[in-house]
User: What shape does this take?
Amino acid sequence: MGKTSRPGTKRYAVLFAALALTAAAGGCGKTVNGTALPVGGTTGGNSKINTNFDKLLRECEVVSVDDIGKTVGEGTYVGPSFNGAVCMWDLDGGTAGSGMVTLSWYELGSLTNEKQNNDRLGYVTNDITVQGRRSLETHRPNDNDSCGVSAPAADTGIVGWWVNYRAGSTHPDPCEAARKLVELTLNLAR
Assistant: This one.
């Protein structure tokens, strides 16, 4: 016995394939401005592009886990919880209790951009100085358990640390810890 098909099935299959091809072709037409560079080429200056991606996430190691623990609260266990666009560590025990520490390092960031984003979020931002550099200290409204400090990185961009202790717990000053972590980062980044 041969296979039979419903009348019009082949016609619908051809119509569906044509629609899928049209949608796929329409989504691929985009012009990107800039200059194409060969693999391993340069950015136009003397800098060679790193196509090995062997330095990704190295900023997560700029301050040791032991130094993070000493900074946020003596005897605090610090365990890495996420490494990606930002680096995060969970805190447990010691004088800090529980919480989280976050490092962000934006190569193209600026204090102006950080201040604008903080304002949009309704955060309170104060100008402070860290190692002679204008920096920002940031608080969420009515939150005494967390604080962030951002400063210009040693070479380019902006580096920031947030210290978030468990709400309502007894802990050291989160702003002092965030400032010390920024200082350690700037010292080690030179």
